Amino acid sequence: MRKLLIAILLAGCPSSGDHEEYPSYQECFDDHHTHEAYPVQESIVICCLEHPIAGMHQPVCGSTAAECEAYLTTNLSATSASGTDRMVACTDYITQKGM
Known about the structure:
Elements: H1 2-11, H2 25-35, H3 40-50, H4 65-75, H5 83-97
Helix pairs in contact: 2-3, 3-5, 4-5
């Protein structure tokens, strides 16, 4: 179910290569979560999978869930997502990245 939801959410994004670049991960998250009203976990996954961040192309969130969580700890405000949200989102990110 979660994979289907992510696929549906990502279907609205431009095709590969046309994704908006953000100067920071926080700005990407804020755009998707605050302005576009995606849930916290989906916003995290979308930014990890779909957008270049500060000139870095994917995978900005790393190649393991632990790397993803470490990246988010450094690049996403603690008030933006709980530890549980980050853990679940990173697990989803790794699953989606492998597809």
